[in-house]
Amino acid sequence: MKDMMKDNQIISLVLYAGSLILLLEWVYPLDDVTDTANMSAFYLFMVLCFILTATKLPYWIVSPIKFMGLLFVMHQLFYSGSFLSRIWINEVFTDMQMNISMMLSQNWGGLSPSFRTLLFLILLWMMSYLLYYWFAVRKKPFSFILFTFIYITVLDTFTVFNAEGAIIRAFIIGVAIMGIAHLQHLLEKEKIKMPQMSTMMKWISPLLILIGFSTVVGYAAPKYEPIWPDPVPFIQSAAEGSGIGDGPGGGVQKIGYGENDERLGGGFIQDDTTVFLAQSPKSKYWKVETKEVYTGKGWIRSNDGVFNQSNSSLRDLAQYSDLVERSEDEATVRFESPGVLNKLVYNYGADRVTSNHDGMTFEVNSFTGEVVPKSGDSTNLPKEYQLDVQRPFYPVEEMRKIDSSVEDNIGVEYLQLPESLPDRVVRLAEEIVDGEDNRYDQAKAIEQYFTNNGFRYETQDVAVPSEDEDYVDQFLFESQAGYCDNFSTSMVVMLRALDIPARWAKGFTGGERVFGEDHFEGGEPEYEVTNNNAHSWVEVYFPNLGWVPFEPTVGFNNPTNFSFGESVDDILDRESQETPETPELPEDSESDEEDDTEEEEEDNSGTVLSFSKPMQFTAIGLSVAILAVLVWLIIKKRFSLIRRWKQQKMARNHDVDTFTDGYQFILKVLAKHGLVFKEGQTLREFAIDVDRWYGHSAMSELTRYYERAIYRDEPIQDQHHEVYRLWNRLVNDLLA
Amino acid sequence: MTQQMTTQQNKVEQILDHMEQVIVGKREAIELSLVALLAEGHVLLEDVPGVGKTMLVRALAKSFNLDFRRVQFTPDLLPSDVTGVSIYNQKEMTFEFRPGPILGNIVLADEINRTSPKTQSALLESMEEKNITVDGNTMELKRPFFVMATQNPIEYEGTYPLPEAQLDRFLIKLNLGYPSTDDEIQMLDRTSREHPIDRLEAIMQQEDLIQLQEDVKTVHVSDAIKKYIVYLINATRTHPLLELGASPRASIAMMKAAKAYAYIQKRDYVLPDDIKFLTQHVLGHRIIISSEAKFEGKSATSILDDIVRKTIVPIERG
């Protein structure tokens, strides 16, 4: 008996240690997701609490030590003066007093960090008790393990915390704990002494092998890409805005559209000055120009191209082949404060531009994609202009036909790369597209590479390449954090490294949808485009189609329409169903920031859906079908599924409640076979019916025993053997 | 279950078999009257003349070697004709009590509804109280004491139907009915020489019967069974076609009868099947059906059947 107690204690300690590791997984991410610092102090305090609780010393010894530990941590973190001196005590006392009065006045924001730390330490203290109870006493670790997983995955999904390691650790510890707890339950139930070490190993090694195997398989197995883009950069970009830096790199710049892209890099600060308002049926990117020469630091032009006088036609810009289907669209743009911007913004597929200004002409540069408005001799932006757009739908099937064998009928400038480009960039590009045999899939692979490999969207702390560093190389291999310029430039460079013609496009994202302020006539959606929306992306050349835009920046969605064999009308039909023409106006016309964020989210997700809908529908339909089949199977086979369990229970337990349970199980199985125990029927009558049907007497015999159990209140221990035999026979007959 | 109990139960079985020799094909009626006897209750027999009511009582009395009395209730019967009367003995100059028929063990009260309510209640009260008071002297009735009253359902002219409150005092009401063709032929065979009742021998003695009555009280009634009884009784109280449901006295009667019936079935615990079987006989005369029910052609029997069919039998402990 004493031995058993001792064994029990060892297992309890192992479980308790496991719980400490799991709790550490809870505290560990706080470093990343909150402004908590000095984490080691918390770890030490937790370990202290756990060790003390595990010693099972009386509370009047343990509690003071823990309390002193708590004070010492507080002392180290916050208070001056020597520990426990009069001044020190005074300081602590005043601090606490202040915080308690803050708390009473419900001024939660006013609580000092020291007080919040104190509360947190107390929480950890309490957790050490709670986990001791859960793990070491009750030995029911499942819910805590489950919650740990939920916590870690939620943090991973919605915060910057990367939980890859944490999940693996939690899995290993969690399964090990549950295995050991189960062993303990078995030992207790069967009243077995803890076996010898060798026997123990026989038990433990399958568990360890299983854990190791599942971990390795889980880690190495291919995983589906997420259906949604990682929400973190998106949340950040929604909260912080997006855009491109401009001008010479280094230092913090203000975001906005600029001309000079020679040196890219460095952080920027937000600027929500409205550049222009636009009315358009859909949120689409606004292009301004493209650049084609990458210097290793930024973008310049090889030549400025030719500006052709044009009255209103923009046809030179959208040189698509007939394979690209198009649909008619319109857009209106009104400039608010364009800053240095002196060119028109336009959507992909813009066909005509019209302005109310008298005498305004446009010069279109088909090489750079610029549209410069001219009023007389001077460059002058019109206040407002309309665009007729032939919205392009790029056929993926056609794009997939392009492979390395197809010759590009386009200038070599789109394959230019600087001499100084490190080889590892080229190698990486080749690695990424390994296995993809056509241009579209190669471009997609590179576009997705950043999202799938933990690249972060970052606007503040963005590296600037030093004199002998390459901008793309630094981003790909060192910082792995940046904004659109980093992503788009890197993608262009990698494409060119694979001999795929590509160029760098600049402009604005679709902007934020505005409600309640009618800047334009008509009910079409209106968008506000600010300096924060300044953006850059990638255009890839397909010889049979033309230039197709791609979006590598994490957290941004490609607004380009790809068609997967369906007709353009179908796509448009679907779109019109998704986005109602006139959305409900919110009561509050001055929608606050939060609303804006939500709108943008809807907006963007709409675009994503229109892209991946066919796949998504199949996936949803398939999972629903599989789920339905599973549920049906479970319902149909439920008795067979629980039969073994019931049999074990019946064999083990000799009490009347188990017998009742087992007997009623038979009634349920019989009901499934069409022999329903009707109201007003007695068991004996029913048993006769059953036996008549099956041509034996087992049910009546079993019922005799059951009647004695419940109507005579007779214990069934003595007859258990016979009862179990009859019951088993019936169950086997019925579920055969 | 003790060995002794099993022996007793076997003897009861023997009695039943013997009685069936006399009253051919009426096993159920014999069992029910035995139930009433063992549960210390009384039986109301409602039947046409000549189906063997007297024979049933006599067979019962002979099997237990009991003192059998018979009272023919006529309109001019006085209470003292039932209880007995004190007569002045001139020789000894004292009042001498001449006991009436009620001071026997088994009393057949024939055609009880033909006598005046006063005489009826003299009998019924003594059935309940188990004693009589004559001229200020209270006398205990004999033990065992068992009344089987008969009612003739044909002749209603000049009868005094028993009020509901009085009917409640009978544990069981039963009717014998005509025998089936085969049974009647068999009966003719048996009675062609001498009546089998004359050959009937006592299997048990009075004291044995008292012991049996005590044994019956020890039969186990589980909580589930009590629940079932109460469910049934409650159902009669709420049934829309019943004007008057069964009283709590009916619940007690049901339990007593069920114990006795279980005992006869050689069990020492009550089953829901016992309750179900007894419902008609124990509750049939304790409910009053509404005029709507009569109009619809329903009888107490069909309504009780309906109740039994719809009342859930508890199949779990407690």
TrEMBL record, chain A:
Domain Transglutaminase-like, residue spans: 476-554
Q: Which InterPro entries match?
A: Bact_TGase-like, Papain-like_cys_pep_sf, TgpA-like_C, Transglutaminase-like
Q: What spans are recorded as compositionally biased (Acidic residues)?
A: 584-604
Give positions of region: Disordered. 575-608
Query: To which species is this protein native?
Result: Aquisalibacillus elongatus
- Which residue windows are transmembrane per the record? 12-29, 41-62, 69-89, 115-135, 142-160, 166-183, 203-221, 615-635
One of its Pfam families is Transglut_core
**What's the domain of life for this entry?**
Bacteria
Extract the PANTHER family matched here.
PROTEIN-GLUTAMINE GAMMA-GLUTAMYLTRANSFERASE
What is the protein's name according to its record?
Uncharacterized protein DUF4129
Keywords (A to Z) from UniProt:
Membrane, Transmembrane, Transmembrane helix
Automatic annotation (TrEMBL), chain B:
| SUPFAM superfamilies per UniProt | P-loop containing nucleoside triphosphate hydrolases
For this protein, what is any one GO molecular function term? ATP hydrolysis activity
Q: Which Gene3D superfamilies match?
A: Magnesium chelatase subunit I, C-Terminal domain, P-loop containing nucleotide triphosphate hydrolases
Record-linked InterPro entries: ATPase_AAA-3, CbbQ/NirQ/NorQ/GpvN, ChlI/MoxR_AAA_lid, P-loop_NTPase
Instruction: Supply the alphabetized keyword list.
Output: ATP-binding, Nucleotide-binding
Residue span(s) of domain ATPase AAA-3? 42-172
Keyword ATP-binding in annotation: yes
- Cite the ChlI/MoxR AAA lid domain residue spans from the record: 235-307
Q: Which family does it belong to?
A: Belongs to the MoxR family.
Q: What is this protein called?
A: MoxR-like ATPase
